[in-house]
Amino acid sequence: MSETASWLQVEAAGQALLLSPADVLEVLPLMAIQPLPGASRGIEGVVLHNGAFLPVLAWRDLPACDGPSPPPSLLVVLRRFGLPVVRVAGMVSMREDVWEAEPEGLARGWSGGRVTLDQRWGRKLNPERMLGLLRGLRIQA
């Protein structure tokens, strides 16, 4: 029998995303994102968070993502980047064996798998893959 795990479900970039609660430090009200002159693709800008600058992800620059509408909150992940989200939908629990591998395609670079949620796909956001993708975008620039 497969173990059950809890996931934080958020809406961002036109899709449902699932995050491990262990990866999430906090959810903050949206604050002004300051653009960075010369910032590489994938970075919207920075916010001041706990006395340090935190880069904020630019969804529009990432594969398989739509540009988000103005998000009402900012999800802080792994102390390394801010993830703008449209809304936090809540927690969902599911067995580990329900995840499918992401098929060949654009989201594979940052997704850790997918699962059916309310008749649509939910993607597991993998912060380490996301950081690798952002590094790759910076090198290409």
Attribute tags:
single chain; 141 residues; mainly beta; five-stranded mixed sheet; 1 helix; 10% helix
Describe the structure.
The chain has 141 residues and is mainly β. It has a single domain, classed as Beta Barrel (OB fold (Dihydrolipoamide Acetyltransferase, E2P)), CATH 2.40.50. The strands form three sheets. It has a five-stranded mixed β-sheet. The protein has a three-stranded antiparallel β-sheet with strand order 3-6-7, with no helix packed on it. Strand 4 and strand 5 form a beta hairpin. The longest helix has 14 residues. It starts with a strand and ends with a helix. The model has no long low-confidence stretch (mean pLDDT 87).
Structure, briefly:
By secondary structure, this protein is mainly beta.
Topology:
Blueprint: E1 4-12, E2 15-19, E3 24-29, E4 43-49, E5 52-57, E6 73-77, E7 81-85, E8 87-95, E9 111-117, E10 120-125, H1 127-140
β-strand amount: over 45%
Low-pLDDT segments: none
Radius of gyration: 15 Å
Q: What is the CATH class name?
A: Mainly Beta
Protein structure class: mainly beta
What's the domain count? 1
Give the CATH superfamily: CheA-289, Domain 4
